[in-house]
Amino acid sequence: MLRALARALRLARPRGPLPARRCASAAAARDPEIQVRALEGPDTGITEILMNRPQARNALGYVFVSELREALARLREDRQVRVLLFRSAVGGVFCAGADLKEREQMSEAEVGVFVQRLRGLMNEIAAFPAPTIAAMDGYALGGGLELALACDLRVAASSAVMGLIETTRGLLPGAGGTQRLPRCLGVALAKELIFTGRRLSGTQAQALGLVNHAVAQNEEGNAAYHRARELAREILPQAPIAVRLGKVAIDRGTEVDIASGMAIEGMCYAQNIPTRDRREGMAAFREKRPPRFVGE
Q: Residue 91 carries which DSSP code?
């Protein structure tokens, strides 16, 4: 636990920028299935991960997972990333879950290895040092919902459809859903949704607390994305190190008893005391002006 916390605290402090802001593709002849875009102007600090596998409705195939893990590894060290937003470049779908056609071609041993890769991917999303937001403008089923559950915040169109439907395919959630859904909804409700494979609308999901916000879909089919971007803009002005350390304190603290959680909070607070941003926040309060945080 202490080693994991120490690693998380190191990740909470942003580092130097990347030399490039593009996700490399395994095959130069085709479009990447994962595309990275850094926003500019008033949205500088928001980076988007666009899932772009239209022929398979963004299903979690081998190339898709590999490219997403590569993108996360690059962005993790980029101090310019203050909020990471996951969205789909495919209309009507966020992520349709596992690529069952691809999985049918795997041996049982290969399936086990690939599910471990999926679980690792979801853990990497959950452990990303900056806040993460999933914008669900369409279907988020099975592993697609597990991907959204790995994010810190979730925004859905009211017409979006989501659910851990694995039991309807003879499977069970294998990428963290059995652990993250109970933490989000409570054990009994999580069991009900997993046992039944029930699908929820965005409106129903918000009523249960599964998503932070549900918004009416627009003609362009990207209402959740616009609301998620507004939410990201609310995070941007805040002190980046304090936000990242707050994420560590919450994530690590909820895994342990309250006394241990308080100790973790204290360690995070101590990490923030010597930062330039903390001093700037105090000075801005004293001088009655907006703070100018730089992430140091």
A: T
